[in-house]
Amino acid sequence: MSQADARLMVFRHLLASVTEEMGEALRLASVSPNIKERLDFSCALLDADGRLIAHAAHIPVHLGSAHLTVPAVRREREPQPGEILVLNDPHRGGTHLNDVTVLAPFYRGDRLLGFLLNRAHHADIGGAEPGSMSGARDLYGEGLILPPIRLCNRLEPVEDVWRLFCANVRDPESAKGDLQAQVASLARGARRFAELCSRFGDQEVQVAMGGLLDHGERLTRALLKTWPDRSAEARDTLDGEGSPRISLKAEKSGGTLRLDFRGSSGQVPGSWNTHAAVATSAVFYALQALSPREIPETSGTLRPVEVILPEASVISSAAPAGVAIGNVETSQRIVDVVLAAFRGLFGKAIPAASQGTMNNVLFGGVRRDGRPFVHYETLAGGAGAGSQGPGANAVQVHMTNTRNTPIEVIESELPVRITRLALRRGSGGRGLHRGGQGMIKEYEFLEPARVTLTGTRRRTQAPGAFGGEGGKRGIDWWIPVGAARRQRVVPGETRQAQPGDRLRVETPGGGGWGRARKN
Amino acid sequence: MIRVGIDTGGTFTDAVRPREDGSLQVFKLPTTPQRPAQAVLAALLELAQAEPTALVHGTTHATNALLTGKLGRVVFVTTAGFADILAIGRQERNELYCLEPRPQRPAQPASLVVEVDERLDATGEVLRALGASELRRVVEEVRRRRPEAIAVGLLHAYRDGRHEVLLRDALASLGVPVFCSHEVAPEYREYERFTTTWADAALTPVVAPALHELDQQVQARFPGSAEVRILRSDGGTATAHAAAADPVHLALSGPAGGLAAARTLADARGDGAVLTLDMGGTSTDVALLPPGEPELTPMSLGGLPLLARGLPVHSVGTGGGSLASWDPGGALCVGPESAGALPGPACYGRGGRRATVTDAHLVAGRLHPEAFLGGEFALDAEASRAALTALGAEAGLTMFEAAIAVLEIASADMERALRRVSLAEGHDPRDFHLYAFGGAGGLHAAWVASRLGMRSVVMPPHAGVFSAVGMLAAPARRTLAKTVLCELPSQRDRRELFADLEERARAELIAEGVAPSAIKMRRVLELRSAGQGGEFAIPEGPKLVERFHAEHERRFGYRREDRPILLVAARLRAEGPSSSPWTAQTVRDEAPEPFATETAILLEDGDEARKPMNWYRREEMRPGARCTGPAIVAEYSGTTVVPSGWQARIEACGSLVLSGPGGAA
């Protein structure tokens, strides 16, 4: 501890304030419900090496990926003053194609001080099906791929890039508005960051950024040191073709943690893969959740953690692997595996598994009047029970925390009616503490639409812990208009809805914790 | 008729009454938590004696009931298929990183929810009609559940309340209050509307009897010559009966008093936008009050969204009692832990050993032991020094270095909060004035203001009873809204849209005794660029479209003129006359005598030296009195630091106004 550390929190407040301002600007100016209502975006401030210094996030899955963006971009080009870059290629600094990242270097004179970045989930980015998260065998089929390219030059839009972008997505007007909002957000952040630099001096700001990284590192070490040294293993599978496996050997020693994912399945055809950024996010999340006090979201926090990811694997894939679902589903399973290993390392403080999926609902089409529509949302389910009590019902778990789209908003803006929204009673795993209940949501399509439900824990249960039972598996139904029988939906398949057809999603329950008392 | 403002706080009940010469008579007594009306009545008798009186009362009763869950038994009636909407909420958790999240939702048991077979679509068309036999069945189901109040929330009722009205009329036979979502909060987004309606119903059985009791007791003491009015979250008042009928509008009655006072003072001074900083013991409240009529915003209380709009207040974790400590990563942190009222800061001598923000101020020489609460409360400076010495020793810092770091962190936290409330509305704080109240506000105000680029700080008079002063000024008010969701209609159609709201507001105000000719109407349209996320309020009037685009550009940096403008909601504020509690007094230019000259640390950019500076007593500064920084002005209920280069002056209305270098107050 030193004199400088006495003032670190001053900089933490003020740098966090920069990213909060970027987030407010993005939320207010954005167009699509996925961003404005569900807050599916994040904003980050990075140092000159691209390390994460401050983060305004609503979405943990974005957390561990921001710091991998700049190094990836630099392998291709050095961002120049006045440039604003856009990218979404997961193998070149992005996460999955829907997450469009906009990035600007922050220069003071000719000195690079850092980067500002935001990342927003666009409801559609082209590809085979509306929502861009189904029907692809590889990345090319998932939609428009943007390597790091100039969106603005000398702060003026590069019109050709905007036109190309708009020509490749299903709702270009909304997408353009969202992209404009992303640029406006960076401009706001840059203004505030410049003020801070003028106030404290560039040098002091730079020193403080380094201090915040070191502080994050010390916090993680201190956290790890409160637990005994131990090692543990865990594994789990995904619902996809061939049940891809995630294996983990975890070893905690002193103030360090080693997470070895070798033994996980190789990368698979389709969209189940993740890039290393997403696996890192999952580890980041699990550490944060483990800590009894808030750990600032900086790259320093991860320094004491060695993450070993096998190359060309389902959790660390190489181009041209498809990743659309990996980001939302495989990421959840990585957290499940990390927490399962943590249970071996840290014992009863760790709860049972939560629903372990995001239950992605995607649909789109063209209205009778010719206007296109696209919608994406994720659905809550049961949280795992823990030592403190039953799991929460119908709540977003782990790597996502997006809000639902209100029924009255969906029905006002899209040709869809919600016919049921309810807790899925009895779906939480039994135990001393019961797992959280899943949820039932039923959509009726009023116009022809292409509809996809992508989720996991349809074949496996969210496991219970310490004698608790697993939560009920998710189950999904297609109810054709006028038909007597409903049909099971295979997650990931895209159906053509006729007016009156319904999709009913029953999301998984959380695992129970502790052996249930016998009556 | 005289006016008396009475504010029931957690510890004290404050009462004020204007004297004929414009000064204020102040009376404070301990709150009687079991029977709040008792202290209110005692204060009223002290100040009003036998004169005809209008009592304006602010109460935290509804706030506390919602936070503690001491609520009435409510049956919630909703569209079939959607009984669990209150339990599911917006499906998010409150903390992003938490192994066992506990989402905040209304505490409504599933067994007390009744579904009704009906359905409207998003345009208000009936998809499933609500028949007579279904109405009978629902009434019977509700009756069997023995409610104290009933909340009715149906999908798309903001569009068309017809089914809610059918239910309300049928349920009236049960003899308990019925609340319909299209009347309580006619806005779209079902969870927020239903939660607001539920809260209104759940508060009624606990809040209404207390308000009626107060009213009866006042009427009994002042037969025929007294009126009881209650301050609501929107900064206006309603009669005790009207307030009891819709208690969700009292959820932020407490802070509304201070904000109403700040706004009237700003109007008296001719100030435009104002940021307020109310620093208390455990937290600091900040708010943005734009010029003229502040726009009301949805609120959140205890994690529940409430569409009963109020003046926008935000709390940050740092108050005078916030504890300083080194975290496991070796950084100094201030809060969120607080020493609270007991033991309180180390210098209170009640057994606190750990350093707080207040202790840091004392060590830095920014509090005067003889001037704190007029010297009635002895500060233990030795205890503060010991606490900060111990804190600093952990990292090799001197006591002074530790104190300075604590104060800088606390100020950075406030700066972040003030920025957040400004930016949420798209404003840059540098154009604003900072109004600081609460005991410790003046210790940070000028410092934080200069960091935000603000050049003037106003420390109002009577800051210790500021909420009660606000109650004196608050007009009778009704705030009504209607969600529309259509392309911006013509001015003529908009006039029709407001006509309904105006008629209802006018009738309610006239029933409260407001003269029809005195009613002022303010019409505001909430507009957004089609498809966009944020709507914002534009007052009705000429050049509406141009004003919308200009506001869009101010907020987002670009115009979106190629897209239609969507009218989201029409809002009406109707109010009776208001009276300003601020009276100008004769100003005489004079330089007061300091009561002491002692060293203190100013904490201006990089200047951490202890310097000798003059201490003044505010009570000895008459209007026109001025002093030059560095200086400290102490008063009974607070302390204000005047940095070097700043001027301080008592104005005609009694405010202590600080002007920064190059700034004009």
- The number of distinct β-strands of chain B equals 32
| Global shape of chain A | globular
Q: Number of helical segments of chain B?
A: 16
- Class based on secondary structure composition and strand pairing of chain B: alpha/beta
Instruction: Kindly report the oligomeric state of this protein.
Output: heterodimer
Mean pLDDT of chain B: 88
| Overall form of chain B | globular
In terms of per-residue confidence, which ranges of chain B show pLDDT below 50 for 5 or more consecutive residues?
none
Major sheet characteristics of chain B: 8 strands, mixed
Rg value of chain B: 26 Å
Mean pLDDT of chain A, nearest integer? 93
Written overview of the protein:
The complex is a heterodimer of chains A (about 525) and B (about 675). With about 525 residues, chain A is an alpha+beta fold. Chain A is built from eleven helices and 20 strands. Chain A folds into two domains: about 5-215, no CATH class; about 350-520, no CATH class. Helix content of chain A is about 30%, strand content about 25%. Chain A is globular and about 70 Å long. With about 675 residues, chain B is of the alpha/beta class. Among the domains of chain B are: about 70-200, 3-Layer(aba) Sandwich (Rossmann fold); about 475-575, Dna Ligase, domain 1. Chain B is globular and about 80 Å long. The chains are: A alpha+beta (about 525), B alpha/beta (about 675). Chains A and B meet through helix 1, helix 2, helix 7, helix 8 and helix 9 of A and helix 3, helix 7, strand 19 and helix 12 of B.
Topology diagram in text:
The complex is a heterodimer of chains A (519) and B (665).
Chain A: H1 3-6, H2 8-29, H3 33-36, E1 41-47, E2 52-57, H4 66-74, E3 84-87, E4 99-108, E5 111-121, H5 139-142, E6 149-153, E7 156-157, H6 159-167, H7 172-200, H8 202-225, E8 230-237, E9 245-253, E10 256-260, H9 276-290, E11 305-308, H10 326-346, E12 360-366, E13 372-378, H11 407-413, E14 416-424, E15 438-445, E16 449-454, E17 475-479, E18 487-488, E19 494-497, E20 502-506
Parallel strand pairs in A: 10-11
Antiparallel strand pairs in A: 1-2, 1-5, 3-4, 3-6, 4-5, 6-7, 8-9, 9-10, 12-13, 12-16, 14-15, 15-20, 16-19, 17-18, 17-20
Helix pairs in contact in A: 2-7, 6-7, 7-8, 9-10
Chain B: E1 2-8, E2 12-18, E3 24-30, H1 36-48, E4 53-58, H2 61-68, E5 74-79, H3 85-88, E6 113-116, E7 119-120, E8 126-128, H4 132-144, E9 149-153, H5 162-171, E10 178-180, H6 181-184, H7 190-221, E11 226-231, E12 237-239, H8 240-245, H9 253-269, E13 274-279, E14 284-289, E15 297-301, E16 304-310, E17 313-316, E18 322-326, E19 332-338, H10 357-363, H11 381-393, H12 399-424, E20 433-437, H13 441-451, E21 456-459, H14 466-473, E22 477-487, H15 491-511, E23 520-529, E24 536-539, H16 544-556, E25 565-575, E26 596-601, E27 610-617, E28 626-628, E29 631-635, E30 638-642, E31 647-650, E32 656-659
